[in-house]
Amino acid sequence: MLDAMDLLRSNLSRVRIPEPTNRIYKQECCVSFDTPRSDGGLFVDMSTFLAFGKDHVGWNYEKSGNPVYLHIKQTKVLVPEDRPLKKPTLMAIGVDGGFDNNEPEYEETHSIVLLPDYVTLPFPSVELPEKVRLAVDSILMAEGAEKKEQLAAWTADKKQTSVYAMNLQQIDNGIVVPSSGWKCTKCDKRDNLWMNLTDGTILCGRKNWDGTGGNNHAIEHYKDTGFPLAVKLGTITADLEAADVFSYPEDDSVLDPLLAQHLAFFGIDFSSLQKTEMTTAERELDQNTNFDWNRIQESGQEVEPIFGPGYTGLVNLGNSCYMAATMQVVFSTHSFYSRYYKNQSLKTAFEKAPADPTVDLNMQLTKLGHGLLSGKYSVPVSEEKDQTNSITPTTNSKQDGIPPRMFKAVIAASHPEFSSMRQQDALEFFLHFLDQVERAHGGSPEIDPARSFKFGIEDRILCSSGKVAYNRRLDYILSLNIPLHEATNKVELAAFQKLKAEKISEGKEVSNDEIVRPRVPLEACLASFSSPEEIQDFYSTALKAKTTAVKSAGLTSFPDYLVLHMRKFVMEAGWVPKKLDVYIDVPDIIDISHMRSKGLQHGEELLPESVPGEEEEPTKPVADENIVTQLFSMGFSHLYCQKAAINTSNVGVEEAMNWLLSHMDDPDMDAPISQGRQIAVDQSKVDTLISFGFQEDIARAALKASGGDIEKATDWIFNNPDASVSTDMDATSSETIPTAAEAGLPDGGGRYRLIGIVSHIGTSTLCGHYVAHIFKDGRWVIFNDAKVGASVNPPKDMGYLYFFERLNS
Questions:
Q1: Which candidate in 56, 221, 262, 321 is catalytic?
Q2: Per-residue DSSP letters for 50-103?
C-alpha cells in the first residue's frame, strides 16, 4: 500500500500551477455558503481551483476524479475586548483604509488532502513535491475570485481632474470669503455649504433622500448660471487634494489642480483653514457605517431577531438591497421553494451543472434556495471575548447572513447594470430575474417556477363604429397608476396645505409630524387599471378613417402569485421625475374577480382585417425626405434610408444612422416597406419604462423607435415630449399572442392574500434603500439585508411592490 507521499506523487498529473488568468475560489464553496471558517474548512481542487465545503468535496471527486485538494481552515483568535476601532478612510472592504467594523481575527492553517480516503499531508513542508509547493503558494498568494469582485465593487473610483478646472473663468465681483462664519445666501443653513468657484457664491448642498443635508441651493445655482465647479467649505486645509471639489456637469467629485489659485481669487488663504466638514466620500462612508434601519421602516421599534429555516438574511454586497429584498419574497413562494429546495438537492444540481458550477443559474439558485431555507446559516453569532485569559462565549442577537455573490454574478451576466455596485430598481431586477428563469426552462416549461407569476392581459378597443378589437399580451406584474383624486383624507389634506402655506409665508419649515400624505385605497388603483380610456386618432378599418375609440383592460387569467407595482414615480411638466409622497391602503385580502376579461361577447362585431391596398394612404409609414436625402448622400440605398427613418419615427439623422448600421445584416432589409407594419416589443422592457413613470403607450412607441434599446428609448421620449402614439393603436382584431390557456399558464379564482411587500425609501428607484416584509408562520417578518426580525409595524401602506398569493377556495 502506498504511503501518503507516494500517493501524492502518483497524482501529480492532477495538480496544476495556476496562471494569472485563472479564477481561484478559496473563500466560499461553489455549491454552498461554507467558508474556511466553517467547521470542516474549505477544500480547493488543485486542478480546477474550485472550492468545496466538507460535505460537498466528495461530490466533486466523484464527478471530476480530481483527488488532490488544498484544505484551508480558519480559527478565531482571541482579541482584547478594548481593541480600538479603526475608522475607515476608503469606501472599500478588506483593503488598507477600508471598513474594519472590529471583526474578529482568524488564524489560517493549510494542509494537502487526498481523496477518497482524506489522506492528509501538512503544509508547508519541504518534503512535498516542488510542483505542489508552487501550486499551493500560487493559490494562497493569488487574489481570490470572490475577493476580486468584492474589492472591485466597493473601492470607490479615483477622482479625475475636471475638464473645467484649467480654463475656469472667475468673476471679479468684489466678494471676499471670510475664514469662518459661513451661511447659505438663500437660507439659514450653516453646514454642508459649497462655494461656487466662478462667482464665489456660498450655497447649501443637496437634500438627501432621508431629509437630511441642504436645500439644493448650490445645484440650483449651477442650473441657473452654468458655473461648473464648487468647493465644499470646511474641507479646505493645507492638503488641497483632500478638499472636496464637485463638478456639476461631470456629476462627480473631481480634482482641481489650480484650486489654490481659484481660492486666492476670493481672498481664501487655504494654509490657515482647519477641516470642519466631511468630504462627500467621508459622508458616504458615514452613511454606510451608521445606517439606521429602524428609521427606514419600523419607526424605531425594537425588533425581535428570528432564526431558523426560512429566516436567513442576505449580506449587502454594496447597494444590493434591491436584490436581497426581491429574492427573499421570491423564495417565500411555493413555486420557488419547491423548484430549488424541496424538489432539488444540492447534489442533484451539482451533478447537472457544467464543469464550472459558479456560472450555472440552476446551481446558484439551488445554492441560494438551500442557503435561505435550510436554516443552516440562520444562527446567532457566537462571540468570544478575552477576559483575564478565559474564554467567555456570548450569544449575539444577530446573524451573519449569507453573501449571494455567485448568484449575483450569474444573474447579472446578461445585464451590465446589475453587475455594478450602483443601486438598481427592484422592479427591473424582478422582471429580469423571471425572464432569465423562464429562458433557463425553455425545454421544460412545466417545471418553470416563473410561470406562477405570469398572466394574460386583454385590451378591448371599442371603435366609434360600434365594432371592437381585442389585443392580448402576457405579463409578470400588474402596474397600477395611483389616482390621487381618490384620496380618502381630502379634508385633512386641505388643512395641511393651508398650514404649509402659512408656515412658508412665515419663513418656517413644516415638521415631519405635521406632514399629511394622501391616502388612496388599493381598490381605486385597481379600478383605474380597468377603467375605460379614450384614444384619439384611432384608425378604424370599419370607417376607413381616424376616429375616437375607447380602450379598457382586463385579465385573461389569474396567476398563482399576483405582483402589483405601484407607479409612485411619475413625470411632471418638462419630463422631471417625481416620487409621489402617498400612502396606499392595502387590505390583507383582495378580490379581483371583476377584472377578468370576458373576451368577444355575443352580438359584438370585430373590426375588419385591413385589406392590402385599401388603406394604403392612411397607414403607409412615410419617411422624412430630409433624413432620407442625407443618408442617401452617404452612399446607402434609398430603400435602406427610408426604413431607417421610418423605424426611428423620423426623429433625426443620427438616430436613423445608428439604426441603419445595426440592422444592415437583417434578412428582410431588401424587402419592400410593408404597410401598417407592427413591430414586436418586449413587454418586460415596456414594464421597465413604465416603472420610470412613462405611460405605457409612450413606452411602446419609444421602444419601437429605438429598436428595443431601453436607454435609447428613454432618450427618444425626452427628445419627443409631444410624441403621439395614436397611430400605434390602429388595431383591427386580436393579436396572435396565445391565450393564457393556450400558453399553459396557471389560472383560478380572483381572491388573493397579501404575503409580501418590497418597500422603498428614497427619491428615486436608483437610490435609497429597499426592505422586504413577508408574512411567515402567521406573523409579519422584516428582512433588511442580513437582519431578520419579527415586524412590529409592517408598512403595508408604503409598498413599492406588493406580492399576493391566490386563495384556493
A1: 321
A2: -EEETTTHHHHHHHH---EEEEEEEEEEP-BTTPPPPPP-SS-BSSTTSB-TTP
Name the binding residues for Zn(2+).
184, 187, 204, 217
Catalytic residue among 56, 71, 769, 773: 769
**CB proximity list for 403: less than 8 A, separation 6 or greater:** 28, 33, 314, 315, 317
Blockwise average pLDDT, block size 10, the chain, 809 residues? 86 93 92 95 97 97 96 86 56 49 79 96 95 95 66 53 92 85 87 91 78 82 94 77 85 89 86 55 43 44 86 91 96 97 96 95 97 95 50 62 94 77 84 93 90 94 91 92 92 90 83 85 95 86 88 94 89 58 94 92 85 47 80 78 81 76 73 60 74 73 73 70 45 48 81 96 74 96 93 90 91
Q: Which of 429, 423, 793, 765 minimizes the C-alpha distance to 580?
A: 765
Active site residue 769: yes
Strand, helix or coil at 614?
A: coil
621 contact partners, CB below 8 Å, separation of at least 6: 646, 673, 675, 677
Residues paired with 697 in a beta bridge:
none
CATH number among 3.30.750.24, 2.60.40.1120, 3.40.640.10, 3.30.40.10, domain 4-80+103-142: 3.30.40.10
Asked if 788 contacts 778 with a C-beta cutoff of 8 angstroms, the reply is no
Prediction pTM value: 0.71
Under a CB-based contact definition with an 8 Å cutoff, are residues 300 and 392 in contact? no
What's the CATH fold of domain 158-288?
A: Herpes Virus-1 (3.30.40)
What superfamily would CATH give domain 625-663?
Answer: Ubiquitin-associated (UBA) domain (1.10.8.10)
Is it true that 308-381+398-596+750-808 and 625-663 share their CATH fold?
no
Residue 771's closest CA among 752, 806, 750, 798? 798
Q: How many CB atoms lie within 10 A of CB 391?
A: 10
C-alpha cell, 588: 390583507
Joined grid coordinates for residue 672: 419592400
| Percentage helix, strand, coil for the chain under 3-state DSSP, each rounded to 5 | 30, 20, 45
Contact 542, 518 (CB under 8 A): no
* 3-state SS class at 439: helix
Containing H/E element for 536?
strand 533-540
Q: Report which of 266, 213, 215 is spatially closest to residue 236, judged by C-alpha positions.
A: 266
